[in-house]
TrEMBL record:
The keyword DNA-binding applies. InterPro entries: Homeodomain-like_sf, HTH-type_TetR-like_transc_reg, HTH_TetR, Rv0078-like_C. Keywords: DNA-binding. Residues 33-52 bind DNA. It holds the Pfam family TetR_N. This is TetR/AcrR family transcriptional regulator. Residues 10-70 form the HTH tetR-type domain.
């Protein structure tokens, strides 16, 4: 009995996440109706409250889901790099470029911070920071990066990529802002590279 209830709860959660993701992408957080969203999932508001607490909790879950996908896409871009330095740059570039994806732009980079607060405090961002910290530690140990405080460098690099993506997403001309952000990020990172 408990197993079936857990399966139902998980199925409802999955349906609500999918409906919310579609609604938030199309209408934005403020414009997404909870009644329409739950109806699209074939569920009631009670299921939403049970699974996520409220609309804000549902947005947090959608943001975490998309942010996880963004991290996977960034890691995939880094995986094809020839070394850790190029991987660091490729991962950041891929993350910044995702600001052009309409779903990422609206849900994660515009509505997410407006509703959920500072993205650097989101659990999903902390996972990205940990990966950047590991890469920076390897680069410093290998002598590829200057002898710099690993934590400080990782936070600055990660924060720069996040803020570049936020800037591109909020820009009136994202296609114009993107190459500027990518160039500036690469130049900034280059300043940490050992000569």
């Amino acid at each position: 009995m408990a197993g079936r209830r857990a399966e139902t709860t998980e199925a409802n959660r999955t349906r609500l996440l999918a409906a919310a993701r579609a609604a938030f992408a199309e209408h934005g957080y403020a414009g997404a109706s909870m009644d329409e969203l739950t109806a699209a999932a074939g569920l009631t508001r009670g299921a939403l409250y049970h699974g996520f607490g409220d609309k804000r909790g549902l947005l947090a879950a959608v943001v975490a889901q998309i942010d996880g996908e963004m991290a996977a896409r960034a890691r995939a871009a880094a995986a094809s790099a020839r070394d850790d330095w190029d991987a660091l740059l490729a991962e950041a570039a891929a993350y910044i470029e995702m600001a052009l994806d309409p779903e990422v732009r609206r849900i994660v980079l515009l509505d997410g911070p407006a509703v959920l607060g500072d993205p650097s405090r989101w659990p999903s961002q902390n996972a990205c920071l940990a990966e950047t910290r590991d890469t920076v530690a390897r680069l410093v140990a290998a002598g590829t990066m200057r002898a710099v405080d690993v934590e400080a460098a990782a936070r600055l690099l990660s924060g720069a990529a996040l803020n570049a993506a936020l800037w591109v997403a909020a820009s009136e001309a994202p296609d114009v802002a993107l190459p500027r952000a990518l160039d500036a990020y690469a130049l900034m990172a280059e300043g940490l590279r050992a000569r």
